[in-house]
Specification:
alpha/beta; 111 residues; 23% strand; single chain
Amino acid sequence: MKKVALYVRVSTPDQHVESQLYDLRELAAQKGYEIVHEYEDRGVCGKQARRPGLDALMADARRKKFSVVLVAAFDRIARSTRNFLQRTVWASSSSAAEKAWRPGMRWGVCS
């Protein structure tokens, strides 16, 4: 059974991560993955390169605590192309990154 981590992020404190977590938990169950940890950042814009939840996820990936990272959309990881590419290089060297797309998810800009 593959060990996976979930990462969720919302840009403002009044938003909720529960719908992202629900979809990711469902995907993990469908694929037979074992969720070892759920990382989250609430009220944090994706333009910020340093985030407590993402930093913890990266540290645990270096420790090989999981082999797959599930995210609701790639923009949960990064907003800028440069930051996304940095994260992608990290993900390809540390673990497998997987995207779970859910209907209604859209790309947006943090203010």
